[in-house]
Amino acid sequence: MKETTSILNKALDVIGVLFGLILFYSWIIFISSVKMSFFSETTVVNGNEIIIAQDWGQIDQWLEAGLILFFLMFGHYLFCSKNMSRIEKSSDIIGIKSSLIGFILWLFITIITFLFNITIPYSLNIGGGYIMLIFIYLLMRKNLYANSDFEQ
Asked: In the beta sheet, which residues pair with residue 48?
């Protein structure tokens, strides 16, 4: 019976992560649709109208890549929370919160640098954002274990 439960738990883990990927791609489609609907220009080239979205550089990069961890953890939590221990649930919740907080903080940084015409290379932009996410996750996790009875 334990093997069946273990296989079922692993299957739910995989399904949750795949659902998170679907949510992430839905986010990309949503962002692209909003940008094309509200922040685009029409130009005429050789008699043909072409709709071009505005280029926001590092803001676009972070909007498209920054929430993948959030959606993966959210999908995992959504499908697996019933079978998790209290520690695993808390760890997932901290991951969800920290990825959302880190995303918003790094988005502010990218907006400020964009407004001051400071260009951040793609790898530095995405890497810096994920370093911020990891830092916030470790900080929140440290506080959780310091203030609870989870210590082993």
From this structure: 45
CA–CA separation, 51 and 42 (whole Å): 4
**Closest-CA residue to 58 (of 133, 132, 109, 130):** 109
Please give the model's pTM, rounded to 2 decimal places.
Answer: 0.85
Spell out the residues 6+ positions from residue 85 whose beta carbon is closer than 8 angstroms to its own. none
Tracing tokens 């509200």 back to the chain, one arrives at 38
118: left (phi over 0), alpha (psi -120 to 50) or beta: beta
**Amino acid in the structure at residue 139:** L
Tell me the pLDDT tens digit for each residue of 118-139: 999 999 999 999 999 999 999 9
